[in-house]
Amino acid sequence: MNEKMTNSQLTAEEMKDLQNAITTELERKPPTIALIGVSGVGKSSTINTLFKTNFATSDTVACTKEFQSKDVLLKFTEGQTKDLSTKFRVIDAPGLGEDITHDPDYLSMYRNHLPQCDVILWILAAKNRAVALDQTYLKELKQFHKKIIFGLNQVDLIEPMNWNSKINLPSEEQIENMNIIVKDRRQKFQDIIGDDIKLIPYSAKMRYNLQELFTSIIISCPSERAWIFQSLKNFRYDDFIPAKIHNIIMDRKENLSSPSIKSNNSFISNLKTSIKNFKIFLNNLFSSNKQ
Question: What pLDDT tens digit does each residue of the chain (291 aa) get?
């Protein structure tokens, strides 16, 4: 019989051998991402918010001087590895542009560490119109262009800074300006890379659009590692939230479906404008609950 054996035809022993082989490979090289960019754009705070880690942060001085890594635990959501736990390695890089005397060493660190990464998230600050430093460093790191996606952090600070705190969403004016900024930054970095780029606006502080950011990281893996990330693609950012908090979120969701809320035209207008999908909505509700 020359038909290819399917997974359902594997014996229990063969299935165990397969999972052991997968576990060995994941231990050898776990799925790994790095967050990089110029100093002060919120790399460490983004990692802390996404993965519930505790990298040092400061509003006044640079805290990250070396490459630091943290392993967070994820479970595969499908395939032969379903329910199998694996490490997901997150690397926090020192910020470029902090001091001209440090940059050569930092760039050397980047070149040494980034080859280990499956995906590189380059963080930008939404209010920073001057991107010449980012463009310069991007040219210096040309060999990693295919691994890079971009995150536009701190969108809560976009003018006129009238974030809707009641529903934890940007105002219509902020959304309009956000779209202009995204279009501008996308063009400037596509000119450097010479190809289309992924650029996701978000706010680590307000926990806005974090699910889209996380999903973009997962689906941007290199083809040779797709078998790992494919099994993680249904993992949600809010799966890191404790079950008690998750139940509160679901209760809030049900309350927002009531007729009294639906009759609020202002709320609905903001909701339709700002929420692209249900994933973003859950993230923002969680942040609203935390406040």
Answer: 344 444 556 688 877 777 787 778 788 888 999 999 999 899 989 988 888 776 543 343 344 568 888 888 777 766 666 777 778 899 999 899 988 999 999 999 999 999 999 999 999 999 999 999 999 999 999 999 999 999 999 999 999 999 999 999 999 999 999 999 999 999 999 999 999 999 999 999 999 999 999 999 989 988 888 877 777 766 666 665 544 555 555 565 555 554 544 444 444 454 444 444 455 555 555 555 555
Tell me whether residue 164 is in a domain: yes
For residue 282, tell me if it sits in a domain: no
For residue 60, which amino acid is it? T
Based on its alpha-carbon atoms, the radius of gyration of the chain, rounded to whole angstroms, reads 21
Q: SS3 for 86?
A: strand
> Who contacts 242 (Cβ-Cβ below 8 Å, separation ≥6)?
none
In a domain, residue 259? The reply is no
Residue numbers of the domain that contains 206? 7-236
DSSP lists the bridge partners of residue 121 as 35, 149
CATH of residue 111: 3.40.50.300
Q: Which two tokens stand for residue 25?
A: 């490979």
Residue 244 placed within a domain: no
Could you give the number of structural domains in the chain?
1
Burial environment of residue 159 by CB neighbours within 10 A (0 to 12, 13 to 18, 19 or more): exposed
